[in-house]
């Protein structure tokens, strides 16, 4: 991947000092910053699509940038629909964690990694384009388009540490013009009142913030969400 350099436009690269609050308050490594791993919370589960006709009739569109709708001949497949069909839970315990997360280990009964699967798996480690646009609208309704925000990409994604850009909620879609190939690993406002988080191997994005923000995200018609319990509730189901 090309080196991310500052360029004229609505987003400007910072020196990365804005990450200090996450170093102090969160848990992070080269895969992203999570404020409270294992805590109960709202997750956006990334969109997946199912082919509705033959592979010849419905080839996947090339995706040089962010994951997006594969085009004609495909339809949105909700996680809950696939879970009902396959008999799998919407999310399951990850192989190396003791709490449920929307990861690439979901849907063990379905082959999502075949060479030509009829289902396009969710974007891994970042939001797909349409989910990101829907989230952007929810954030603007909640905080206003002029709110200053910071976007951070992890070293696992772009092979360079502490990459942070500064801009406004009004210009979130313009992040696609930066020399990066995915949505940010973390997104937060200057007042640090909420945080958007995903990890490089996740099929979901966690929302930290007030109930009003979570309600707006849950109400969006495109976004599919899931409230996942804290890990100690999994260990102690009666609590």
How would you portray this structure in words?
There is one protein chain. With 239 residues, the chain is α+β, with helices and mostly antiparallel strands. It has a domain at 12-41 and 126-234. The protein contains 6 helices and 15 strands. It has helices spanning 20-25, 79-86, 129-143, 155-158, 211-219, 231-235, and strands at residues 12-13, 27-29, 32-34, 41-45, 48-51, 74-77, 92-93, 100-101, 119-120, 148-153, 163-168, 186-189, 195-197, 204-208, 224-228. It has an 8-stranded antiparallel β-sheet. Strand 13 (195-197) and strand 14 form a beta hairpin. Helix 3 packs across helix 5. The termini are far apart.
List the helices and strands and how they pair.
Blueprint: E1 12-13, H1 20-25, E2 27-29, E3 32-34, E4 41-45, E5 48-51, E6 74-77, H2 79-86, E7 92-93, E8 100-101, E9 119-120, H3 129-143, E10 148-153, H4 155-158, E11 163-168, E12 186-189, E13 195-197, E14 204-208, H5 211-219, E15 224-228, H6 231-235
